[in-house]
């Protein structure tokens, strides 16, 4: 077997066998297959695609390239949730305690943000002293005691994916659905949960910008999960505007706490309760209606918020000190009309420019900066009315940079639904 | 401009502008564009293709990456001939003196063999003391005096192609027609001839194995030549069996000398006189019939052979000492029937195994080894009759290796024409 024949096969749109995929991926990890050969193969895959069987094989080869977390010591059923990455997406901060309060175990490992989307771990670190690195025994113990822990990724999970992903990022091969599916699913399978709920974002600022591709990705991931005996459900959700009103690490924590105390933006409420109901339903093997009722109850009776406080306490955080910049500037509309679009991608990049996101993996970020939207898509704004608040630090952006994120017109557009489809 | 956007454009089947191709190629030569990025782009080009305009631009960018040979000091019109590489292809050895004897200047730079095909420079070096490296002044002087010189490639011609070609070779991207066209034509244009005749081989053992692809390649190269004001003619020829009877450096020189003295295998005669007539015709701006008459005359009256002797003398060679192994073994047929196929690729690789070809660029080769075919495709052979003679050295091959190159059956197949088409 040699890598040039394998590349040539895929160039000619033929299917690769498990052995050929193993040769390519393991060879790349070992350094026998060179990066210039892997990138050629990745481009051939990106253009010519892969069959479901190839994608399932690729996922398992990646999965087996590193450690697989063992969560068998956790008493309850563990359900994991993953989002393909959105702007202002603080869902995990609310969802995790909410689901845990309903009796489903959340033993979650999250990542840091890179590029225009934030990461849950950065957000949690906006809570003073919150510990994201805790050892495995303490992690298991915490989940068994309070059903909930959210920590930083630990262990050498899926090293093959790390290498392949870094190469895809610089070779124009990020948009391939089979490559995205195998990357996400190998990481989720390595994280050890019993069941998986995936929030697949669609639209401007998301990984995929059209519903057809997102559907294909979702269907493929559900299939990979089933093949590995892990029930997997995908929820396709709109990402044409930032989720909720806050964008930026500390600001999103504050919005999440308000939510848990009863004050939630409509879109964030809809998404979080829907995802929570699905997670509770599969975690407890009960119907979705009963599950949704429990979810709403636990939001209203304060149990979800209490669970959040328990987690902060267990992980050493001080709930009274959350990083938020004191330098605030109000940006006012230069027009009167309906807000027809708020560009998530641009907003995400502006947070990065403010210092709240990373350009490089090792950048230290400013947890206190960001935006709070006063208006959402569909709202009416009059000239000189506040559109958005900027919480700034050292980073430099202009008023026009911000105004350019908004499209305002005298005629309102139809707002797309927040949840497009559930694929199971 | 950035390379990821350029790769992504080609991934999406869009046309690249001249500036984008310059950014990619010059960036690669300068090391700014990494090899793993270039290979990803090359795969996208291989799968999605390039427009003629893109290919013309790419050729010129490659051409301008290095020196361009100046042959303006040569009095006669200089016509160059290039073959895309065949097995047993000693055409240049006969063609160059033949055309020169008709009054057209041949100032040819040739290469060494790599892989399963031989190179003209290696063949000439089978003549004892033949000098392939001569300085530029002596080269021009020789051509002005005798109309003929064949030397080793000199100067830093098309460094971009050298780098790109080396990468294509190890990344499964050799089969792209636009990439082949720009590679061949950038080198030919850099060699400085006024007019170009290209022998595009088709079949087993050739770069392309089907006539449609070869036609596309030929049409594209003719167009690139015209765009650069160099008349270019392509002759599509069959390469399903080795050309002539001898395969191996010294053996091919001997066959060429016999040819020039009047004893030629039919296929080699047809090909060489056809190519020669085209070259004389465009070199002297006269009709093809008159040109063919001159070519045949100069073969018969000995002027072509005298021209060969002149070149050998000018370049210091001893015509009486040609490297040929004295260890000869006759291989006899195990069957009776018609020869339906002689596998060029296998034969070429066996010469390499005998020590007559290179695996790596710096290998020292045995100029005396090779094969002489006693039978060609279409011939009838009886069991135990001689099929082929092996001139061997240190390399090890088996009788079966050789017999496996022949397909013999009781029913004869139709022999394809040697010359498929002339594209101008």
Textual characterization of the structure:
- The structure is a homodimer of 424-residue chains.
- Chain A is α/β, with parallel strands linked by helices.
- Chain A has three domains: 3-49, Transferase, Pyrimidine Nucleoside Phosphorylase, Chain C (Transferase, Pyrimidine Nucleoside Phosphorylase, Chain A, domain 3); 79-314, Nucleoside phosphorylase/phosphoribosyltransferase catalytic domain (Pyrimidine Nucleoside Phosphorylase, Chain A, domain 2); 328-409, Pyrimidine nucleoside phosphorylase-like, C-terminal domain (Aldehyde Oxidoreductase, domain 3), CATH 3.90.1170.30.
- Chain A has 16 helices and 13 strands.
- Chain A has helices at 3-11, 18-30, 35-48, 52-63, 91-101, 120-125, 136-146, 159-169, 177-190, 211-227, 249-260, 266-284, 288-300, 303-314, 344-356, 399-403, and strands at 79-83, 106-110, 148-152, 195-202, 232-238, 246-247, 328-332, 337-342, 370-373, 380-381, 386-391, 406-409, 419-423.
- Chain A binds chain B through residues 4, 7-8, 11, 34-44, 46-48, 167, 170-173, 175, and chain B through 4, 7-8, 11, 34-44, 46-48, 167, 170-173, 175.
